[in-house]
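User: Quick one: structure for sequence A, then sequence B.

Assistant: Sequence A:
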Amino acid sequence: MPYICGMNISNFDLNLLRIFDMLLREQNVSRAAERLALTQPTVSNALARLRDALDDPLLVRVGRRMCPTPRALALEGPIRAALQQIEQSLATGDTFDPALSHRQLRIALTDYVEQLCMPSLLAHLQTQAPHLRIDVVHLTASLPAEALDRSELDMVLGRFDHVPARFTRLRWRSETLRVAMRQGHPQSGAGLDLRSFLQLRHVWVNGGQTRGMIDQWLAEQNLVRQIVYTTPNYLQAAHLVAATDLCTVLPTQLAQQFARLLPLDLLELPFALPPFELDLVYLTHRQHDPALAWLAEQILTIAPD
C-alpha cells in the first residue's frame, strides 16, 4: 500500500495538492482562491483538511503575512515537481505549433545576454512564432533555482558556477573580455601593460557579484585595480567611459557592438584569462514541454558567432 508523508495515500484527497501548491505560491488564502477560481471558504476548508492530514499548520500568520512552516517548505518542491510531471504527462499527446501558439515564457537574463540574444531571437520569432510572448526578468549572480522550481521562470541564460543535478545545462557560447575606453584616451594609442592597467580608473559592472574574474585574478597576484564607479548595467558603463577618462572591462562581443555605436577603443587585457561560459538552464523534468523545448532549440541555434 503506497504511503505519502507517513500516511496512507489511499485516504488522502490528491485534489488538495493543487490547492497546497497555490497556497504556498501566494501565501494568502484569498489570492490563492482567486487564482484557482474557487471561493475563499473552499480554499480555507482545504487548508484545514491539509493541516489535519499532514499534522502541521503549514501556513502560520506572522503580522499580515502567512508564512510557510518548515514542513510546508520541505514539501513544496517535491509536490510542485509531481504536479508539473502529471501536467506534462497528460499533455504528451498535445502538439505545439509555433505559428499558432500564444504561450507566454519567462526567461531570466542579464542586460548583456539580452543584448546579445534577443534581437536575433525576436526577429526569428516574428516569422516563426508571431504570437509567442517572451517575458524577461533580471538575472542576478546566482542561479534562481527556487524561481525555476516554482515555475515562476521557465529558463535562464547566463553564467553559473554551480547548477544542481535536477537542471539541464546546455552550452550557449563562450566569451572573452576586452578593455573599453573613449577614443582619444591618453592610454588608448599606447596599448596596455599590467602597470598601466592598474593605473587606470575603472568602472566595474558587477552583475550582483562580490568579485569578478578580473579582480579575482588580480587578488591572486596580490594586486588591486582602482574602481571608482560600480554599476549593474553594461550599457551605462559603456556610455560612462565614452564620455570620461574612465575605462571598463566588457565581454568581447558586447564591447564590439558598443564600439560600433559609441566612440570607443577596445584593447586586449594585459594578462591572460580563460574564456567564461554562458549556459541555458531549465528543470530537466520540463524537457518534454514542447514549447520550452522548441524555444531552447531556437536560442541555441541562433547563438552569436
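Sequence B:
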Amino acid sequence: MNPLTLPLVAIAIGPVDVPRAPREEVPTELRAMLEAAIASGNEGEVNTLVKYARAAKVPAADAMNRQAEAWKRDRRASAERRLREADFLALVKGRVEVSGFRTQGNTDNIGVSGRLDLRREGLRWRHKLIAQADYQESFGITSRERYLVAWEPNYKFHDRLYAYGAAQYESDPFLGYITRYSVSSGLGYSAIRKTGMRLDLELGPAYRQTDFTDDRYENNVAARGSLDFNWKMTPSITFRQNASAYVQDANSTVASTTAVSARVIGPLSTQFSYVVQYESLPPFGRQTTDTTSRASVVYEF
C-alpha cells in the first residue's frame, strides 16, 4: 500500500478506541465495612481498614483507598468551612471541675477546689483559658490558698506547628509568693495527633515578676517549656498529663498534673488527680515541693 494512502484509510475507519484496564470494583462485603467505618467518623478506623486491605494484597485495595481519600478531603473541606463560618462562642468547649471536703470530730477541716478550662479551636487561631482556685482551713486557720489564671493564644501554621503566647497570674502564699506574673512566647509542635491521643510540646523564652512573702521582689528572664498529653484510653476513660517548667538563674518552677477521669453519665465524669508544684528557691521556712491529691466531679460542655 502506498504510504500516502494511510491517512486516508485512518480517516475512513475513524478513531480507534484503545481498551483500558477495568478498575477493580470493591466487593460488597468490603464496601459495607468501609462505609460503616466512614459513617462512624473515625478516621483512624478508616485508615486501619485500608492499611490491612493493602497488606493482604486485596485486589480492591486501591479502590478502597480512593474512596477513603475522597471522604477525608470532603471531611476536611467541610470542617474548614464550618470553622470559617462559625460564631466565636459556637466553637468554645470547656470543662468545670469541682471538689471539696469537710471533716469534723478529731479534726475540723474544710477544703474546696475549682477549675475552669475553656478552649476555642478555630481555623488558624486556638485559645486556651484556665482559672483555678484552691482553699483549705484547719480549725478555722487557713492552711492552703492558691489562685491561678492563665491565657494562651496559638496561631497555627499548619496541622502540627504553631506559635504560642502565654500570660499567667499566680498567688500562693503557702509556697512563698504573694503574686507572680509570667509572660512567654515561642513555638509549639503537636508531636502526636491522632484519634484518641494528642501530645503538644512548647518551648520559648519567658519573663517573670515575683513578689515573695519575705519581702523579696524579683524580675527574671527564664526559659519556658510545657507538654500537654491527652489519651482517651477507652470511650469512657481519659488520661491527662500536663506539665510546665520555668527555668532561670533565680527561683525556678516545675508544675505537673496527672489525672484520670471516668465518664459517669452524659457530660458528667469523676476524676482523680495528683498535682506537684516545685519551687527551687522558696523563702526561708517554706518547703520546695507541694503536692495535692483530688477527687473531683467534672462537667464538660
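Residues 8-12, 18-23 have pLDDT under 50 and may be disordered. DSSP finds four helices and twelve strands in the chain.

User: Thanks, that's what I needed.
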